[in-house]
Specification:
This protein is an alpha/beta fold. Helices cover about 30% and strands about 20% of the residues. α2 packs across α7 and α10 packs across α11. The model has no long low-confidence stretch (mean pLDDT about 95).
């Protein structure tokens, strides 16, 4: 008889496997779960070299899966000026000035997380605000949603933009219409950001990305994350593969590809799922629109605070139809960013018009689905479309959604409405835009409140939560971070539940969050993370 390498017993195992929802113990052989069941049966598999851990009633779950996280960019952003949570323009400028003071002149100063919606000014900043503190450094600061970039005059000059401004379809360089000639304000939106990053800032050196990821993986393990699904640039896939080759990758990655790389992937005969249990190719990441806080989410009706705006169409219907069709025929599901109700409807219309693929059943996804028209709620289920959503967006965006969308916010982050109609929900963080901690996301899901009551976004929260009818149970939230997140990537046969034969990716929590009231989630810590059958984190 083969003896188990690891046995966890005296535990409360929530397996996410409907065949055996709860168990007392589990055994691991190699990198696979060997057995799940009663303590006596599992302990019978131990041998002289088996590691046996008495968990003394701790809760055991499948390893968490973040279905949408820009993890390489998150890792790099940890080295930048962090501006999230700063509640005024003055505070942001002070933080940037401190970074400028320690950066050699002429070198880039980058930052992330500013949010003008929580400032008293409630205005978009300008390049002139930055020029006062950084006259000799190019500065590029990404807004919290990642859909707006704020740069100074030196940065614009680096790109020759003070002389010639390119026309970028699906993007925008804001101009001051009050000035002569409409001078650039320093605010850059949507696909114009991609142009600026490519032609002006340039990609980060591979060595920087690799070292940032290696520094960040222990943090990821401490949060119970064992797998991520990443919508990032091709150079980030190169980084993941390099770490895999070096034996330094301690995380499973499902890496989406961008539209500029689709033809190359098709030409090589690649398709989603190519790779191994550590790095696989994912679906095709596309953008139908922008974001709420930047006023670029594509809406069916004008914004409540500005009747002249309906948002921005990044890819129109014809472009979406072409890209989604070509990707589908090649075996890549579409993973389409859609935040506004018009964008969501447009994506559903495109998916509904796809020709039958015979036996091929691609799991197309809409990333975010932040607001949906009630008439479209049942369409995702009918089309088999996964809703890849990020729970922390709801409490973070609550005040802005109410102000910009008005009564339409009733169907913002509509988890319950979608789930009750049969839609599969795959949860993630959208890090670095939100906290990558799955427990924080679970708390937001079951309360519709922010896990940190000290941040500006938590001010004025309703006592019962924001539109509490859209809350989910803890078990439903956990499923969206485990089994259904695996389903969204076509990987539910190897991960997402504590089932014999699946990969031994496991998290042990300090509290039983499925049986305690929601406030207990905020007091819960990850006590142990097991990846590929090995303990990679222990508190």
């Amino acid at each position: 008889m083969l003896h188990a390498d690891l046995v966890l017993h005296n535990a409360v195992c929530y397996t996410m496997d409907p065949a055996l929802p709860r168990a007392e113990a589990l055994a691991v052989y190699g990198n696979r779960i060997a057995a799940v069941g009663p303590t006596a049966d599992v302990l019978a598999l131990r041998g002289p070299n088996t590691i046996v851990i008495d968990l003394r009633g701790q809760a055991v779950l499948p390893g968490f899966i973040d279905s949408h996280v820009h993890l390489a960019n998150y890792a790099l952003a940890r080295r930048w000026a962090m501006l999230d949570g700063l509640s005024s323009l003055a505070e942001v400028l002070d933080a940037v000035a401190r970074r400028v003071a320690i950066t050699p002149p002429g070198m880039w100063v980058e930052g992330f997380g500013w949010n003008h919606n929580v400032w008293p000014e409630r205005r978009f900043p300008t390049r002139h605000d930055l020029d006062a503190i950084a006259p000799d450094h190019p500065v590029a600061l990404r807004r919290k949603d990642g859909h707006t970039l704020w740069v100074n005059t030196v940065a614009l000059a680096r790109g020759g933009l003070l002389d010639v401004v390119p026309e970028v379809r699906g993007g925008q360089f804001d101009r001051d219409e009050r000035s002569e000639g409409g001078a650039l304000t320093g605010i850059i939106r949507e696909l114009a950001i991609d142009w600026f990053k490519k032609h002006v800032i340039g990609p980060p050196p591979l060595a920087d990305t690799l070292s940032a990821l290696v520094e960040t993986m222990p943090l990821v393990h401490s949060l119970g994350l064992t797998s991520v699904q990443t919508p990032e640039e091709a150079d980030k896939l190169t980084a993941w593969l390099t770490l895999r080759e070096r034996g330094e990758l301690a995380l499973r990655v499902w890496a989406m590809i961008e539209k500029d790389d689709l033809d190359a992937a098709i030409g090589l005969g690649l398709r989603a799922g190519f790779g191994d249990d550590w790095v696989r190719l994912g679906g095709l990441k596309l953008y139908a629109d922008g974001a709420l806080g930047s006023h670029t989410a594509d809406m069916l009706e004008p914004y409540a605070d500005d009747p002249t705006r309906r948002g921005l169409t990044v890819l129109d219907t014809d472009e979406l139809r072409d890209l989604v069709g070509r990707a589908s025929r090649a075996g890549f599901p579409a993973c389409v960013h859609a935040i506004g109700d018009a964008a969501v409807r447009r994506v559903l219309d495109v998916l509904a018009a796809l020709p039958s693929m015979g036996e091929q059943r691609l799991r197309h996804r809409i990333e975010h689905v932040q607001v949906i028209h009630p008439a479209d709620l049942g369409r995702l289920t009918g089309l088999g479309v996964v809703a890849a959503m990020q729970p922390l967006h709801a409490p973070s965006d609550r005040e802005v959604a109410d102000r910009l969308w008005g009564s339409r916010a009733r169907y913002a982050y509509a988890w319950r409405s979608l789930l009750d109609r049969g839609t599969r929900l795959a949860f993630g963080s959208d890090g670095p835009i939100e906290d990558i901690d799955p427990l924080a996301g679970i708390y937001a899901t079951v309360t519709r409140k922010h896990p940190d009551p000290t941040v500006p976004q938590a001010r004025g929260e309703p006592a019962e939560g924001w539109y509490p009818e859209e809350c989910l149970s803890v078990e439903e939230a956990v499923r969206a971070y485990t089994l259904d997140a695996a389903y969204a990537a076509g990987e539910e046969h190897i991960k997402g539940s504590l089932t014999p034969g699946k990969l031994a990716d496991i998290v042990v929590l300090s509290r039983d969050i499925l049986s305690e009231p929601p406030p207990a989630i905020l007091k819960t810590r990850v006590n142990m993370t097991i990846l590929d059958g090995k303990v990679v984190y222990e508190r």
